[in-house]
Design a protein that fits this description.
CATH architecture of the largest domain: 3-Layer(aba) Sandwich
Number of helices: 24
GO molecular function: acetolactate synthase activity; flavin adenine dinucleotide binding; magnesium ion binding; tartronate-semialdehyde synthase activity; thiamine pyrophosphate binding
Keywords: Thiamine pyrophosphate
Distance between the termini: 58 Å
Structural class: alpha/beta
Radius of gyration: 24 Å
Strand content: 15-25%
Number of strands: 19
Catalytic activity: 2 pyruvate + H(+) = (2S)-2-acetolactate + CO2
Strand order of the largest sheet: 3-2-4-5-7-6
Organism: Allonocardiopsis opalescens
Helix content: 25-40%
Family: Belongs to the TPP enzyme family.
CATH topology of the largest domain: Rossmann fold
Largest sheet: 6 strands, parallel
CATH superfamily of the largest domain: Thiamin diphosphate (ThDP)-binding fold, Pyr/PP domains
Shape: globular
Length: about 575
């Protein structure tokens, strides 16, 4: 067997694992890997900040289902990656971050840019490891891909000391290949018990979480729901797992990203089959209210997730796709396909009688109108990318999604600035897709330098900037404290002109101030982005003090009706 530079072996492993694009920034401590990569078929996209690189790898992973890769050098490169690692860990996204490192014999001497990135990264990764010997290189990377994909997916960090990178190892790519990843099937006994609970319940719901999307289990979910005629709700991470125009769609419940009728349907249910959902606090609200009057079946691929937030009446360990398939198979054997019955009809009644308005004609523009126009203009195959803030909440409340992997959101960690680099990752994976990044003005400014990346590599997508000139979510959270402190971002004087900023990057942009101009601007942006092969921005100036209906303290807001709440407490967190 031939001895080759160990970084060449690593590159061959990356290629065989299906990695065709990586995002990173070269530096002195990672150059042996870059030297090996330059002769490969892997495309490298040079980002402007290592956090941006992790978010781009994250976006790439969410739409491909494969493991995204981000690369940086030593020291600050690794610490800059921590937010991206945390985001991927929180949302169960498989990425691998690769960092350079000082030589092994210098690590204890406080050498230049030497930091113990492995210990720093451990709380936000499934595995953080430093390569100790050149001979371990291909096998550590194989294991990294296996761990990132296995069970509940997540991130891995591999730290590469410069002297190890320069070493050699025995390696033959023809004798090597990806390690197997187990897809656990549920035991038949709990599946049968779950089915009996579903059949005897009077008002059952299926709750589809992000695990259904990750597992590509949308077809199995739909077959089960249609056979038993059970309404389906989704969590924020589960948007797209079930088409929102389906008669059995029962909305979203929660204290922020929810529909009024979704909350009402949930509160009337008596049994919830939750598949691939974590029961996050923004979904559940007050647990006593959330649990009262209903039983729960919790399906998750990760055994320790079951019972973490509260104890369900039945727990099932299994992959979302195999478990939903097993439920449908047993249902088909013991129960004929159910026809129309009272509970789905009740959910449909709630959907028809408890909608939120989105047809406002007022100027300044009310935010729900923005999402109405997005729904009307873009087709179901458009991929939307959005992050955190009031615009995420409005998006969850108003935006419709019909297909999996078409609505990407950093749901749990919620890092500002995620949208643009994530959109770059999506478009790099699927150049033919229409991609729209919906951002807030403050979030955009966190990583706006990544627009330069999209411009350099001719990566076209549309940025819809919802601008209320405030830290809107924090301002709303301050209302119970009777304060309006440190949240003003007014741009009238000495502020950021986002249109001019985009033009400075060489990218077209327009500003919209009235609702009738939104859709023409979207049409222009879509056509212009395709024509010039660049990101194009539509900045929509919305009502400056617009609030999102998400708590009892907000019931009096005139443009929204009171919301059935899952939490009796006033919303207090940003």
């Amino acid at each position: 067997m031939e001895r080759i530079p160990c970084m060449e072996a690593v590159v061959k492993v990356l290629e065989s694992e299906g990695v065709d694009t990586v995002f990173g920034i070269p530096g002195a401590a990672i150059l042996p890997l870059y030297s090996a990569m330059q002769h490969s078929g892997i495309k490298h996209i040079t980002v402007r900040h290592e956090e941006g690189g992790t978010h781009a790898a994250d976006g790439w992973a969410r739409v491909t289902g494969n493991v995204g890769v981000s690369i940086g050098t030593s020291g600050p490169a690794g610490t800059n990656m921590i937010t991206g690692l945390y985001t991927a860990m929180a949302d169960s996204i498989p990425i691998i971050c690769i960092t350079g490192q000082a030589a092994r014999d210098k690590l204890h001497t406080e050498a230049f840019q030497a930091v113990d990135i492995v210990e720093i990264a451990k709380p936000v990764t499934k595995w953080a490891v430093q390569l100790k010997e050149p001979a371990q290189a291909p096998w550590v990377f194989r294991e990294a891909f296996r761990i990132a994909r296995s069970g509940r997916p997540g991130p891995v960090l591999i730290d590469l000391p410069i002297d190890v990178q320069r070493g050699e190892c025995y390696y033959d790519a023809e004798l090597d290949g990806p390690l197997p990843v187990e897809v656990p099937e549920p035991r038949p006994e709990p599946v049968r018990a779950a089915l009996e609970m579903l059949l005897t319940a009077e008002r059952p719901l299926i709750l589809a979480g992000g695990g259904v999307v990750i597992a590509d289990a949308d077809k199995e979910l739909r077959r089960l729901a249609e056979h038993l005629q059970i309404p389906v709700q989704v969590t924020l991470m589960g948007k797209g797992a079930f088409p929102e125009d389906h008669p059995l769609f029962a909305g979203m419940a929660g204290i922020q990203t929810q529909q009024r009728w979704g909350n009402a349907a949930f509160l009337e249910s008596d049994l919830v089959l939750a598949v691939g959902a974590r029961f996050g606090d923004r979904h559940t609200g007050d647990l006593d209210t959330y649990r009262r009057g209903r039983r729960f079946i919790h399906v998750d691929i990760e055994p320790t997730q079951i019972g973490k937030v509260f104890e369900p009446e039945l727990g099932i360990v299994g992959h979302a796709r195999t478990t939903l398939a097993a439920l449908h198979e047993q249902a088909a054997q013991i129960a004929p396909a159910r026809g129309s019955w009272a509970w789905p009809e009740r959910v449909a009644e709630l959907r028809d009688t408890l909608p939120r308005r989105d047809d406002f004609d007022a100027v300044p523009i009310k935010p729900p109108r923005v999402f109405r126009e997005l729904n009307e203009f873009y087709g179901p195959d458009t991929t939307f990318v959005t992050a955190i803030g009031l615009y995420q909440i409005w998006s969850g409340q108003f935006q419709r999604t019909q297909l999996p992997h078409r609505y990407l959101v950093c749901g749990q960690a919620g890092p500002l600035g995620w949208e643009v680099p994530a959109a770059i990752g999506v478009k790099a994976a699927y150049p033919e897709r229409e991609v729209v990044a919906v951002a807030g003005d403050y979030s955009f400014q966190f990583l706006m330098e990544e627009v330069a990346v999209a411009a350099q590599y001719r990566i076209p997508f549309v940025i819809v900037l919802v601008n209320n000139e405030y830290l809107g979510l924090i301002r709303q959270a301050e209302l119970p404290y009777d304060m309006n402190y440190a949240v003003d971002l007014h741009y009238a004087e000495n502020g950021v002109d986002h249109v001019k900023l985009m033009e400075a990057f060489g990218c077209p942009a327009r500003r919209v101030t009235d609702p009738e101009s939104i859709q023409p601007a979207l049409r222009w942006a879509s056509e212009e982005s395709a024509r010039v092969q660049l990101p194009v921005m539509v900045e929509v100036m919305v009502e400056r003090e617009a609030n999102a209906a998400m708590g009892q303290s907000l019931d009096a807001i005139k443009e929204f009706e009171p919301v059935p709440e899952l939490s009796p407490a006033v919303f207090e967190t940003g």
